[in-house]
Every structure is written in C-alpha cells, then in structure tokens.
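Fold this sequence, please.
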Amino acid sequence: MNVKFRSYTKRDYRSLHSMIITLYDEDPGYAEINDSKIKNTINELTKHKEKGEIIIFQSGQEIIGYSILLNYWSNECGGNILVIDEIYILPDYRRKGCGRMFLKHIIDSSKKTSKGVQLEVGKKNKGAYKLYKDSGFDEINNKIMFYNFNRDKQKRV
C-alpha cells in the first residue's frame, strides 16, 4: 500500500473531524470530544507549530487516517519527547501496514530532534498494543494519572 504522511491543511477539516469523532466513539477517552475541542486543537497547533502538528495519512487522493503529535521537554530524558496523542486509521485500511509505516516514519524523522516517542494505548486495544510492541515501544513502570478540572465543576453543580 502506498501511503503518504503530510501536514494538515484547512481542506482536510471535514475528513479529520469525522475521523476524530469516530475514534472517540470506538475508544472513548477520559473526556468527551466535541466540535469546540476539535477546532481549538486545530487552531492551537496551526498557530503554534512548536507545540506539535496534525498529520494526515493519504492513499492516492483518499484521506485514510490522521495523527496528532505533541512535543514536550523531559528533564528525565534530557530533551524533547514527541507524543503521539492520537492515531486513527479508517477500518478498511487497518492491518495493511499503514500504522507500522507511520510509526517507522515518525521514529526515523524525529531521531535528531527528540529523545524518544511516547504514546498511550487503551487496555482493550490489543491490536494496537501488539503493533506498538512490534515497532519497538516498551512499557514503562509509570501509570498515567490525570486530574480533571472539569470534574470539580461537575461536582459543584
């Protein structure tokens, strides 16, 4: 399969929006997604390229997936960490090597600017977990914890 990875452009909005909604339907996170959050993410990453970028996966003229990449500095690692915040591939294109190609692309292209690549995977997502392990990702001992400020607002209501 011939897949290209490129930066998001405004003409990709409808496809990207649809894929993000589908991702959260298939694998809900700890917070709900909505149009406002999607638009805010696009605006933030478009205006502040140093924070990250949205990558579009394209086969021919068809958009078949996306990823949201973010950057942060790690004292522990001594440099920048590239975070794969989200990755989604349309169902018809899964298990055809697309995810593996993307991970190889990201790892190869970020070696000079980052100390590593980080991602999360849901406990039930066995296929993605296997792909990440096979691509060289290791589990770390830390558990991810999150303090949700919106939770405080909901409790007070």
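Residues 123 and 147 are 20 Å apart (CA to CA). The chain is about 35% helix and 25% strand.
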